[in-house]
Amino acid sequence: MKNVNFENRYINLPALLSVAVLLLISVSPSTQRRSKNMANVEFSQSLEVFGVKLFTEVAKANAKKNVVFSPFSIQTCIAMARMGAAGDTAIEMDKGMGLTVQNEESLANNYHNILTQYENSNILKIANKIYVMKNYEVKEKFNELLTKKFFSTVDSIDFGQNVQAAKTINTWVESKTNNLIKDLVSPNVLNDDTRLVLVNAIHFKGEWAHPFPEYATKEKDFYLDETNSVKVPMMHISERFRYGEFPELDAKALEMPYKNSDLSMLIILPNSRTGLVDLEEKLKSVSLHDLTSKMSSYKVNVDMPKFKAEFEMELSDVLKSLGMARMFSAAADFSNMLKSPEGLQVSKVIHKAFIEVNEKGTEAAAATGMSIRKKRCIVDFDEPKEFSVDHPFIYQLHHKTTVTSPPFSPTSTDEATTILPLFMGSHQVVVADAVTTPTADSSTNRISDEL
């Protein structure tokens, strides 16, 4: 990334950033607690399924490239547009996202429950914004749902002054992503026909619960295929992590928690150096929630590369392939957005993401109490598992919680673990001249699709 200015307190900390923007243009006319908790479970499960489907399509469209994106950022942006949709457009958007809610209020409440958890977080910051064409007004219900449930604000802007409008939007995005996501919106996608721009930005700055010791980082091989490799700064740690082996995927997985949070990074590593494509295909029929539930705590020797990547993509074709074509057509019905009667359709859905992974945790407290040990002493003498991330892999950063519902009887309770996928990606391309030493600006790869 060019001209990135980190504030001092952020230097060398792992970072994940994501922004999604949805543009709409004018077109010519054509038990209570138990119920709430279970609704949250169903909602999280639908987001997980949508995230995996989205990952499969994005990876397919970007073969041989590094991919990083935020399913939640994209889902949130689409959901904000869904608040103003009606008729078949609303039905299609719900189906495309795998949602079972029957109305806007229920969907908005589900998002509100998630966003509220991070409203004052120092680790994960989520921000939403609506820009509406000057002299146009949004409907009261649409405005209320987005401001109260999505914590969004509505700003009036002249899209006809496209250069200044793009600058205004991009400045807001930079302010919400520590200046790491720049130039999200190009002036040439804005014009006098643009009516609304919906933006979601996510900034994650997390510290490992178990930091990798910097002295252990050594230059090692990262295999691009069975025989070709490049040297990368490879981090190393021996610690207790949740780990699992999955013959049905021909892969193994490792879950590494972040400090002081319910957030973790899941690494899924194919057993074969060339197994990434097959793994991506197999994941379509696998629940990542079920996968993580089968993992257990082990002592694991972990080798993992430091890496950094950017990703940018216009998502119209991907979302159409997931069954949401109507919102991009003249048949779209967003009649619940503006007070004016003119028709609206989505013109573009633009997404940018950034990831940096390195050794850093905090110097003060390595003992966080997050290491899980079984009671049986024999576990301490088990042979450590080996997890060497020395070839292409898939990763996911997710939020995990356990929901407890009131019991059917005094002797029973229902518990369900929910996983909310915040970021997903695959890493397979390494620029050799950028990773010659552990102190280099390592594994930087920019992927940019023409919009």
Name some characteristics of this structure.
451 residues; alpha+beta; Antithrombin, Chain I, domain 2; Alpha-1-antitrypsin, domain 1; 9-stranded mixed sheet; 7-stranded mixed sheet; disordered N terminus
Radius of gyration: 22 Å
CATH H-level name of the largest domain... which superfamily?
Answer: Antithrombin, subunit I, domain 2
What's the architecture of the largest domain in CATH terms?
2-Layer Sandwich
The average pLDDT value, as a whole number, equals: 76
- Count every helix, treating DSSP H or I runs of 4 or more residues as helices: 9
What is CATH's topology name of the largest domain? Antithrombin, Chain I, domain 2
Report how far the terminal alpha carbons are from each other.
Answer: 19 Å
Q: Helical amount among residues, as a percent range?
A: 10-25%
Q: How many domains make up the coordinates?
A: 2
Name the structural class. Answer: alpha+beta
Can you tell me the overall shape?
Answer: elongated
Account of the 3D structure:
The chain is an alpha+beta fold and 451 residues long. It folds into 2 domains: 13-206 and 308-356, 2-Layer Sandwich (Antithrombin, Chain I, domain 2), CATH 3.30.497; 214-305 and 370-448, Alpha-1-antitrypsin, domain 1 (Roll), CATH 2.30.39. The chain has 9 helices and 16 strands. It has helices spanning 32-61, 71-82, 87-96, 104-117, 140-149, 162-176, 276-282, 288-293, 316-321, and strands at 15-27, 67-69, 124-133, 153-157, 194-205, 218-223, 229-246, 251-257, 263-270, 296-305, 307-314, 343-357, 385-388, 393-405, 414-427, 446-448. The strands form 2 sheets. Strands 2, 6, 7, 8, 9, 10, 13, 14 and 15 form a 9-stranded mixed beta sheet that branches. A 7-stranded mixed beta sheet has the order 4-3-5-1-12-11-16, with helices on both faces. Strand 7 (229-246) and strand 8 form a beta hairpin. Helix 2 (71-82) runs antiparallel to helix 4 and helix 4 (104-117) packs parallel to helix 5. The longest helix is centred in the first third of the chain and has 30 residues, at 32-61. The two termini are 19 Å apart. The model is unreliable at 1-15, 27-35, 361-381, 404-414 and 432-451 (pLDDT under 50).
